[in-house]
Amino acid sequence: MSAEGLLKERKHFSQSVMVSVAVSKLVKTNLAFVQPGAKINSVYYCQNVLEQGLLLAIRCISNNDFVFQQDGAPAHRSHHTVAYLHSNVPEFIEPEIWPTDTPDLNPADYSVWTAL
Fold first, then answer.
1. 7 alpha carbon, distance to own chain's centre
2. What's the predicted TM-score (pTM) here?
């Protein structure tokens, strides 16, 4: 058999999917999907992911009694997002006191990948 018969080529790569989810010790929200090709800046994140997705679900689950924390993604750390959170959530953990980036502290990764 020739080498050509042993190799398979992929002409197209599978699409990537970007999602966000909120996780607490009791429950997790449904996945909030980011539109394919969307530029994820703080405005998109606040309007589309938080306002229309995660915060609606969190408020429903918790009766607006929650503490919000994020990971260190640039859209999460921006001044715009922090100002939005000051105005729209009862309490959140400021970026300056977030734990260092470590996969052990990100339960969303485990929660999302088991669903996918």
1. 37
2. 0.72
